[in-house]
Write a structure and sequence with these properties.
It contains six helices and eight strands; from the N terminus they run E-H-E-E-E-H-E-H-E-E-H-H-E-H. The protein has 197 residues and is an alpha/beta fold. A six-stranded parallel beta sheet has the order 3-2-1-4-5-6, sandwiched between helices. The chain has a two-stranded parallel ribbon with strand order 7-8.
């Protein structure tokens, strides 16, 4: 049985990745600042939930022993440059370094696909910087760049996805959002885990 440690597993994409990994018989440990989600679902009983500070490796380093894959699903979308540095870049540096030190063979980083040169510029820049940090330790890291993700766990995203699809049919609007392709979060998670089996 393969062992997976995911950081940020209680998040929107993180939960879906865990469920897909369980379907593939992974032994999953999720590490986050909140630990186990407050609202429990049956599948969550198969996961080892650890509440820990990503910035303090001494709290979770031992969990990387004999692990096959580490996934960094930590990140914030809305913030300023200081917050992006703290929550998008720094965790990637810490996790990649620690995973490399513990000889974890596979590292996955959840980045983002840039869809505009005018919106969320600092966010996309931080994701690129984090990618470079990861690649320093893992030249062959699996870098995942999803576009806008929608799903039932995040209210309003399905409606937003439909709106984006409609907007893409309007010529003067569609040219500005060419690279914005809504993706079901379940499909993104499935594609990630399929690469790890």
């Amino acid at each position: 049985m393969k062992k997976m440690v995911i950081f940020g597993g209680s998040g929107f994409l993180g939960r879906e990745i865990i469920q897909q990994a369980l379907h593939q018989n992974f032994d999953v440990t999720s590490i986050s600042r909140s630990g186990a989600p407050e609202v429990r679902e049956s599948w969550m009983n198969k996961v080892c939930w650890l509440k820990a500070d990503v910035f303090d490796p001494s709290m979770w380093r031992e969990k990387l022993v004999d692990v096959d894959v580490v996934i960094d699903a930590i990140g914030v979308l809305i913030g300023d440059e200081e917050l992006y540095e703290k929550m998008n870049v720094l965790p990637a540096k810490i996790l990649a370094k620690e995973a490399s030190t513990m000889h974890v063979p596979t590292f996955v980083y959840i980045s983002a696909k840039s869809f505009s040169e005018k919106f969320l510029t600092a966010y996309f820049t931080s994701k690129k910087e984090a990618e470079r940090a990861v690649k320093f330790y893992y030249p062959d890291a699996l870098i995942v760049r999803p576009s806008f993700m929608y799903g039932k766990r995040r209210k309003g995203t399905t409606a937003q996805a439909k709106f984006i699809q409609l907007a893409k049919k309007i010529p003067f609007v569609s040219s500005k959002i060419t690279h914005l392709q809504p993706q079901a979060v379940e499909h993104v998670a499935h594609a990630i885990v399929a690469k790890l089996v």
